[in-house]
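Tutorial handout. Part one gives the primary structure; part two gives the three-dimensional structure as tokens.
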Amino acid sequence: MTELPIVQCRPLGVVRSRFTDTVGVPIQTAGAPDEPGRLEVFPEFQAGLKDIEGFDYLLLVTHLHRVTRELLEVVPFLDDRSHGVFATRAPARPNRLGLSIVRLVSVQGGVLEFSGNDMLDGTPVLDMKPYVPRFDVRTTDRIGWFDQRLDPLQGKLSDDRMG
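Part two.
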């Protein structure tokens, strides 16, 4: 086996949110489109915000810092059957990376107010990118087990199974 390099990331900022416990957080931003949040970008990264206000949506890559489990099979929040973690959006992942699509509401200096929050207070943000529909939207009918499980998404909250 080829030895892989160690990957290190440093946060560019942190999320401020009303959620302080892993239980009771919306499981996807689409399920809580009006839930507010705030990203406080650290001073050394604020120059990278130039022109960000021209976008409606942002993709936030986060570190799921409060998840303690690393599972390869999970029973996700929207199902009662076990699936491979890579066939889910479950937080109990090998590298504990999260991806959230949020709606940018305003920019004040290094503070980005957004809606569609599914993150805990203090969540480190490792990267952000503008959401560009022509790049990011794909039309498909093949969405695996999610096909029969998306109806209860609105208002669905996390429980303690991913800890």
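Part three, for discussion. The chain has one helix and eight strands. The CA atoms of residues 38 and 116 lie 10 Å apart.
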